[in-house]
Specification:
Blueprint (H helix, E strand, L loop, with lengths): L1 E7 L5 H10 L7 E7 L15 E6 L8 H9 L4 E5 L4 E2 L4 H6 L7 E9 L6 H10 L5 E3 L4 H4 L10 E5 H6 L11 H11 L3 E11 L6 H17 L1 H4 L6 H16 L6 H18 L7 H7 L11
Parallel strand pairs: 1-2, 1-4, 2-3, 6-9
Antiparallel strand pairs: 4-8, 5-9, 6-8, 7-9
Helix pairs in contact: 4-10, 8-11, 10-11
């Protein structure tokens, strides 16, 4: 039995496209749980006609990247749950099949899929997709942490599958986090001797064309999560992968003769770095500045 969980907020027409694609899968989900923030922003017509869809509404103040997903998984009685976001669309009808296949190995407790760029994706972000989500599968274990650094914990709930029995035995996600709940869980799984599997044939279409300030805020929140859960991230390399991405992206832009995009890449990368470094020092910054810097402003209402 396999269920899908999708947190939503003002999903629009994309939700119907996603639900149709999920119900065309070679392994059809038994239930699709929609955890919707702000009831007035989701119309029944957005999901009408799908008998396996169950909707649960929460308020904006109740949403938390970890707590909301913990709640949704408790609603499911499935052996496996697949977590997705409302803007990730399966690339074919084998997404669920490919996500679940690695669970044949009893030590695999978490799998995540490949994210392909949308048609409107800019060249820099398109390359970032291929850098973070290559065409080759990867099995990650505790022994890989020294070699891979932060990349060992890399995972994305844009499209990820969890073995529920192991999820429960490991205590699920952390109770509350600004985001990065997926990486925190992956770290816990690896440190407890389990395996995390990147399933490159499990593909979704998903990308964003962020500007410098959006990158800044997202990376500020990333820094916050690394500070809040510093016991998880201490002792591993956290910044080298970002530097490697910038260098490789530059080489890629040169190879495709789009060198005019390099200044923008450097500009955006600088803001990413500044955001991340500030986020790691959030607890020494004024409350007003923290809220301005954060992408997830709701998170701070009870924190500061």
């Amino acid at each position: 039995m396999t269920d899908v969980i999708i947190p939503t907020y003002k999903p629009g027409k994309a939700l119907g496209i996603l639900l149709e694609a999920l119900n065309r899968q070679t392994i059809r989900p038994d239930n699709i749980f929609i955890i919707n923030t702000d009831e007035k922003c989701l119309q029944e017509t957005d999901y009408a006609g799908f008998s396996n869809v169950k909707v649960h509404h929460i308020s904006q103040s109740e949403f938390d990247h970890a707590a909301t997903r913990n709640m949704a998984i408790r609603m499911s009685g499935a052996e496996y749950v697949i977590l997705m976001t409302q803007d990730a669309i399966p690339a074919d009808d084998r997404l669920i099949e490919e996500l679940i296949k690695p669970f044949a190995d009893e030590e695999v407790v978490l799998t995540y899929g490949r994210q392909l760029p949308r048609e409107d994706c800019n060249p820099v972000e398109s390359y970032t997709r291929s850098f973070n989500y290559p065409a080759q599968d990867m099995m990650k274990t505790k022994e890989d942490i020294p070699r891979l650094g932060i990349k060992a914990y890399f995972c994305s709930d844009v499209c990820a599958a969890y073995r529920v029995s192991s999820y429960k035995s490991l205590g699920g996600f952390v109770p509350r986090t600004i985001f990065n709940e997926d990486a925190l869980y992956a770290a816990k799984a690896l440190k407890n001797g389990y395996k995390v599997y990147y399933a490159s044939k499990a593909r979704v279409i998903h990308s964003h064309n962020y500007g410098a300030m959006e990158y800044f805020r997202r990376n500020f929140d990333l820094g916050v999560s690394h500070r809040e859960y510093r016991e998880v991230f201490e002792g591993i390399k956290t910044e080298g992968e970002g530097i490697r991405l910038v260098k490789n992206t530059m080489k890629h832009l040169i190879s495709i003769r789009k060198t005019r995009l390099i200044p923008g890449l450097v500009w955006d990368s600088a803001w990413k770095y500044i955001g991340y470094r500030l986020g790691k020092k959030y607890d020494s910054l004024p409350k007003g500045l923290v809220i301005k810097c954060s992408m997830n402003k709701q998170y701070w209402e009870e924190m500061l």
